């Protein structure tokens, strides 16, 4: 059994490395809770540094968002460099922004170094917008990242239409740092690389308790336990109550995806001719691309009222046809969904929870690059080095139990405002 949803990624990924549940009492330098991108990147970087790691995954490698996301390797966060500097402190901004600038490089560098078979493509990422909502942001994005030597391309209506094969959008921006991978293949490749560097990975091994054991920590599963000097939590949108309060530092929301049959001929040539990853500059964004088998893959918001997975993807298919009428008549073969983790300020969190206990989470839908980079940041924290990110004490979100009401209100309001933008654009046409 895999436990994975029946997704395109599950159907096309190479087999995972052989793993088994933990049924022993073992010792290690580091116990890592969570076998997704964050946990496995942490294990890989610690293994390269000579540390023994044990990864405990309740399900299978990449079972959570790491194996369900759209596979887009997004540069930066969803805020401008100037906003990040203001929120985290200008004295630290240079290191933080350099970290953000290198995050996509880290992903594609790991893919090359460990020969990860994950359909990597790096033509850049295009942000595409309608109306005035995102236009100022994209111009500021281009201006501010140019200080770091990033040469983005501002796209007018004609240029964005030519780049995407669609006249749906009013403007866009191409960021050359972006790209895409097959995400489940990528995370399974990270697992193989971590094992090569000495990590032990135990799937089907939910961490159920954690307690002090002298100078160490003991993390117990149903059939065994790990005693380690350090513990790292890497659950992101699936963070549970194992460590009190940690799950209340983020807000989980669902994201759904749908994928077509393989495209061919003129239909394929007319759609995304540059094979870019695309994300919308809208309040409720859609994101899409072609996969390695030339299937069109689109993702977007999940259920308005709950975290139920996978739910209906009808709204995604309607939007796909609105953007790309040439998809009319194409068969849709896969639908799936999963949970990502939001933070109130769009900034991921690197926590020190207790002596030698750290956590990294809250990637706001940009987890392929950021979770990979946070593995390196967590490695540095464990090694006693200074991460680029500030290491914080745990801070829970006020009124966390009311989060679904807030999500529903935000999504409903944003959907109305996005519809107004679209109607205004049609009137201008």
Task: Describe the protein's architecture and organization.
- The chain has 429 residues and is α/β, with parallel strands linked by helices.
- Helices cover 32% and strands 24% of the residues.
- Strands 1, 2, 8, 9, 10, 11, 17 and 18 form an 8-stranded mixed β-sheet that branches. It has an 8-stranded mixed β-sheet with strand order 5-6-4-13-14-15-12-16, sandwiched between helices.
- Helix 2 packs across helix 10, helix 3 crosses helix 4 and helix 4 (93-113) crosses helix 10.
- The mean pLDDT is 92.
- Average pLDDT works out at 92
Number of helices: 11
**Major sheet characteristics:** 8 strands, mixed
In total, the number of strands is 18
- N-to-C span: 53 Å
Low-confidence stretches: none
Rg estimate, integer Å? 21 Å
**SSE pattern:** HEHEEHHEHEHEEHEEEEEHEEEHEEEHH
Which class do the helix and strand fractions yield?
alpha/beta
Judging from the principal axes of the Cα atoms, what is the shape? Answer: globular
Helix content: 25-40%
* Share of residues in strands: 15-25%
